[in-house]
Structure formats: C-alpha cells, structure tokens
Amino acid sequence: MAVSPPVCDFGWKAVDFTLPGTDGRDWALADVAGPNGTLIMFICNHCPYVKSVVDRIVHEAKALQDMGVGVAAICANDAVRYSEDSFDNMKVFAERHGFSFPYLHDESQEVARAYDAICTPDFFGFNAKGELQYRGRLDASGRQAAGPDVRRELFEAMKLVAETGLGPAEQVPSMGCSIKWKAA
Known about the structure:
Blueprint: E1 2-3, E2 18-20, E3 26-28, H1 29-32, E4 38-42, H2 48-65, E5 70-75, H3 87-96, E6 103-105, H4 110-115, E7 119-120, E8 122-126, E9 132-134, H5 153-164, E10 176-178
Parallel strand pairs: 4-5, 5-6
Antiparallel strand pairs: 1-10, 2-3, 4-8, 7-10, 8-9
Helix pairs in contact: 2-5
Domain Thioredoxin: 8-159
Protein name: Thiol-disulfide oxidoreductase ResA
InterPro entries: AhpC/TSA, PRX-like1, Thioredoxin-like_sf, Thioredoxin_domain
C-alpha cells in the first residue's frame, strides 16, 4: 500500500543519531552533515518504489555532495519480517548501486520514529543550520521510469537550500511503501 508523508514542517530541527553503516563504521548526524545542508533519506532494499528510483537517488546524491550537501540513507524496516532489508543485504544493495553516501541501519527504529518517517523513500532536506526545508519527492515519476524531461525536484530543492538556506514553498510529498514497523 502506498503512503505519503505530511507537508514540510519548515524549521523543524534534525534529530541527532548514531547508527552503524554498511561501510563498517558508526555515523552520527554531525558526521553526515554538509557545510551547505544535509539530506537524510529513509529507504530500504525491497520496496518497488525505491528499487525503481535507486539509481536516480545515487545520481542526485552525488550531485548534491559535490555542492557541499551531506547525504545519508537509513533503513529502519523490520528485517525479521522483511529479510531482504537485513543489514547484510543492505551492504550488498549499497555496493551494487554504488552508494557514495553512508547507508545506515536503524534496527531499533528509534531514528525513524524521531523523524516521523512514513514511507520509503522519504526525504528530509535540511539547511546548514539543521532546519528542515524539504520534505518532498525525488521527482514526478513515482515507480515508473523517469522521462528525459522529468523535473529534478529533490535536486532543485536541495540546490536552493544549499544556496539560500531556504527550501521551495511548493513541495509535493514523496510516495512509497510504508515503513515496516516491528510489532509493539
């Protein structure tokens, strides 16, 4: 079932975290943060929405990193019920797709809850002060192949954030599979 997150809560402060990465080290928010902003993405390995856009995510992340925007992806799904999202499989997924950013495992799901992550993919774009400025989608393609004229909404928004500290007033929420929460 596809779900969408709420509209951007401009100015909401990024919540600190320390999570293990597929590269073998622990990453805190300060380690990820870039001088011109930070993009935190909640993704997973098995979601058809993520699978259809992961190569575009990698492309846009690299372009943003080149502009001084820090980038990290977090998988918070219940890996017991969804074994494709296990930490070992996260390592394979990150390597296969050439992630230029840390892919972090939120096994306790505390970080996803603190961010109020709703779906995969769910994008949180912060300015250099750690204030939320973008909670929109990658682009209009959803789970379809992107056409040559698709607007690069995430990239354009984060470029604006990097240059001005402010995100666009108009944002279209992301859409994807719900986060797979553990049983209470």
